[in-house]
Design goal:
This protein is of the alpha/beta class. It is 19% helix and 36% strand.
């Protein structure tokens, strides 16, 4: 096991998330029951599961929507909690959005609505997936860490 700079044994968790984009450009998001935050559906990758299998499972469990995984869109690290999230761009192929044990609301948002409702650390994942390249960023659980944010992503959300 690796040791961090301060001598503490380093532990990381690997998570996956799916940014599901409809043909009209709207994105599937959930409002989590545990903390009320809006996010793309996702969670911790299980042992014996590929990244793509984990994305399909998490999206279906949290939203009722079945997806085809298209490509990796970004890698994000929560520096506070030691979570590394692999985010994949997906498209819906079946099912319908439903509230679940993990999601108190499930809906399709426009990119502008994503910017308004989500903390910067999570809205950037969705906005990055709308682009054509893979990116990597670090955050503290809410805000992006300086040097990891695009100029338009540095301001905190207001609302």
């Amino acid at each position: 096991m690796a040791t961090s700079r301060d001598g503490i044994t380093a532990t990381h968790f690997v998570a996956v998330a799916g940014v599901v984009i409809r043909d009209d450009g709207r994105v599937l998001v959930v409002q989590r029951r545990d903390n009320g935050r809006w996010e793309a559906p996702g969670g911790v990758l299980e042992l014996g599961e590929t990244f793509e299998e984990g994305v399909r499972r998490e999206v279906a469990e949290e939203t009722g929507v079945e997806v085809a995984v298209e490509r990796l869109s970004g890698v994000y690290k929560n520096m506070t909690r030691g979570v590394v999230a692999l985010v994949y761009r997906c498209r819906p192929i079946g099912g319908a959005p439903v509230e679940t044990d993990e999601a108190q609301q499930v809906c399709w948002l426009s990119p502008d609505e994503v910017r308004q409702r989500m903390d910067p650390a999570f809205s950037v994942r969705v906005l990055d997936a709308l682009g054509d390249h893979v990116t990597s960023r670090a955050h503290d659980g809410v805000d992006l860490i300086e040097g990891s944010a695009p100029p338009e992503g540095r301001a905190r959300r207001t609302g």
